[in-house]
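FORM 7B: Structural annotation worksheet

SECTION A. Query
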Amino acid sequence: MALEHVTLDGYVSSRRNLGFEWTWRAYSEELAAYGDEHIRADVDTAVYGRETYLGMYEFWGGRPNAESNEHERAHADWVNAVDKIVCSNTLTTADWNNTRVIGGDLAAEFGRLKAQPGGTMSVYASPTLVHSLIELGLIDEFRLIVHPVVIGSGTSLFPDKSELTLDLLESKAFASGAVYTRYRIAQEG
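SECTION B. Predicted structure
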């Protein structure tokens, strides 16, 4: 499963700074609570590409702190405790607790991981990794938070020439203007 914040024009990263500075306008307490209680409720493994992992570790690894609000403290507790996978061909170790590094043949690695018992594995941000997993047919669901912004350029959610048929499983609009949608890859036949 891929969990992505996406602009109305289909971008998941602006390619500036951290790449998702545009999410804060519509990120509300209502959306944060819904995310905590519903969107990631079944996730027991967070999956990151190398760049996203390094940014998440830098930001969340030292949290919560005195300046953190209630949502940040709850999210920090969750993300520091959850099992994490970082997909990288350059990292060989990961310093964040409960983190393992996988590289090489992602199809074989994720095939093995998906066969094991457990909850949902969710890729967070990591657009290059999401593109690779889409091309390998390893994304079975998209949970998208569409933000009411247009940024004109950046990294799109789907790689060029992607062709997917999706079934809408649920949607919810928020007062901030963001809309959550959950899609499953349609089954052939």
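SECTION C. Observations
Helices lie at 29-39, 50-60, 70-81, 106-115, 127-135. The mean pLDDT is 91.

SECTION D. Sign-off
Analyst initials: ____
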